[in-house]
Amino acid sequence: MCDTKHPEKKHTLAEFFGAHWDKYLESPKHYILPEQFKAVNAILTCRTAVLGVKVYACPDCGEVSEVYHSCKNRFCPTCSWKDTMKWAEKVKSRMLNIKHRHVVVTIPHIFHPLIKRNRKLLLGLLMCIAAATFKDWFKNKHNLKIGVIDVLHTFGEKKQYHTHVHMIVSWGGIDIKTGELVEVEDEYVNYDFLKKKFRKKFEDELVSLYDKGMLDHGFVNRSQLKGLLKKANQKKWILHLEPSMETPEEVIRYIGRYSKRACLSEYKITSIEGDFISFKYKDNRDKDENKKAKEKILRLHYNKFFPLLLQHVPPAYFRVVRYYGLYSNHGNIPEEYLYKKVEATAQEETTDPLICQECGTEKILVHIYFDTRTRKQRKQETTNLMKVRRKEAA
């Protein structure tokens, strides 16, 4: 499974949003969508008394534990990480016991304005076409049904808009005629052929959506859309394949970090100073002597950071992880073809709050309470209380 070890977290997004979100709302730089409001509120309230606190007590010695509720929002850095760990453990047992490859498909940035106007429609189309490209290729070339897992990302290292799909592709599958499990030994891929196939599928569907009147656009006529496609064909359509990995355990360990985690890991935040936040990113255009991207720091004012980050909140009810081919239905795969091996994985050392540390007895739920005050109100009340205590101490 993906690695669970991290350096110590210095700052949180909740810390920065809590300090500046109210000020930003007084004069936002961009229209804030409902799902973006929801994501921010989730980050601000996650694991606070606003969402509720369960109080447990040991029936023997009376030791008390408080368990804070999580927001479970997929944009929340903490919740998305825990969700990723559960997903990685679950999905590998549904995968074929053969090699898999990590594939990245990226479309030209010239399409970004159109995608932003049709987020749910075109992002879903991108994921579907990316998977269909490999499904068709394996069917026609090898007569195989394969399994594909798509993970959508809309962000680059500096959190700019950069639409691409990470895919886990089974390098082999079930023979259409015999029903046997076949692993493809040859790893050679005609990149130009696959890129052309993907590009044509995507553009044909785009024109079809335009003709059906389903596309929100600013084109005067069909010719303007064709003009956009002509310009797009002069740009790079990137399709990248990593070398194959022997088992689902390996590929999930590798790609797990790409799945449901938020676009900015809090471990990358280096400082929060006044109105500014700084975070680490990899500059792929500047590489060291080992040809590895150099790590740099980006410092942004909250007026620039908030809209930059929030543009990556997924549309409401949009699934950023999707399953295609054999992986679209677990029942499509005979049990004997599934990956069975279970390896011991490193787990974070945690203390179970429901077990008494003194006597080992299981604690019982005493009550649940909520604190609906805002962070600002609670902070002000704490400040006032401290002032009173200082006066009393004096």
Task: Explain how this protein is built.
This protein has 394 residues and is an alpha+beta fold. The protein has a domain at 79-263 and 313-337: Replication Protein E1, Chain: A. It is 35% helix and 22% strand. The chain has a five-stranded antiparallel sheet with strand order 9-3-6-5-13, sandwiched between helices. Strands 2-1-14 form a three-stranded antiparallel sheet, with no helix packed on it. It has a three-stranded antiparallel sheet with strand order 4-7-8. A hairpin with a 2-residue loop joins strand 10 and strand 11 (276-287). The N and C termini lie far apart (56 Å).
Label this structure with key terms:
3-stranded antiparallel sheet; Replication Protein E1, Chain: A; 394 residues; single chain
How many individual β-strands? 14
Alpha-carbon distance between the termini? Answer: 56 Å
Rg over CA atoms: 25 Å
Categorize the overall geometry: globular
Q: What's the average pLDDT?
A: 86
Proportion of residues in β-strands: 15-25%
Strand order of the largest sheet: 9-3-6-5-13
